[in-house]
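Dataset card, provenance and construction

Sequences and ligand SMILES were collected as paired inputs. For each pair, a complete structure of the chain with the small molecule in place was predicted and serialized as structure tokens. The example below shows a pair involving zinc ion. Curators did not alter the output after generation; any descriptive sentences attached to a record were derived from the structure itself.
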Amino acid sequence: MELPKMMQAMVFEEIGKPLALKEMPLPEPTAYQVLVKVIACGICRTDLHIIDGELNQPKLPLIPGHEILGQVVLIGEQVSGIEPGDIVGIPWLGYTCGKCKYCKSGKENLCENAEFTGYTIDGGYAQYTIAHYQYCFQLPVNYTGPEAAPLLCAGLIGYPSYRMANNHAQNIGLYGFGAAAHIIIQIAIHERKKVLRLHAREIPQASNSHSGSVLPGRAGPIRSFPKNRTPLLFLRPPENSFQKHCMIPIKAVMLSAEESI
Ligand SMILES: [Zn+2]
Ligand SMILES: [Zn+2]
């Protein structure tokens, strides 16, 4: 495939300024990276946190975007298992060290030395992007439409939470209704669950974080919650800030019918 030398990209240069359309050189993949032609890149709330300066350590200038769907067009010489032509998804987590306490305990989403797509490394608001091959998801060829892009962040957050709930649970409460819940509710309805959207005021002692989720340990007993509306599913934010907004250590808070009354 003949590749262009230049590409167009939307570039974040300064807080308070709109993204700028720029002509940029096509990025060159290193030995462990793939070059991907972007099909679509979703917009996440975290992108807005970055552009508004609330996540204040971005690479600058930066190409934001971390819900990337694309087709591999070139691979580095050490890349294995991914070939040109493959459809891949590129998420927020762009690299982890493999050495810190979190990486060693299977929680690489909290890696102390992580790199983040569209934050510390360039993302997908461009015609092409590069990514470490071990941080790409190979996707089935039927995922070539833009509707697949939000799965790369909102879907990654929501689905593990949903799967932590008991498979037999018929009544699911979703609190913090954003992109993740928007995807999960479709799965839940497909699986014939009864779904209830919850507001903070319906959860005694709950506290809103900026990302709209329940802070760990704050939910407390849900005494007023109807017996037939359990379990609850909470999307839990990180313990400190939005720094790892998309790397939420997912924890489903399950309440049996007995516990909820
Ligand atoms: Zn995100
Ligand atoms: Zn690490």
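Derived descriptions for this record:
Confidence is low (pLDDT under 50) at residues 204-261.
Helices lie at 45-51, 101-104, 154-164, 179-190.
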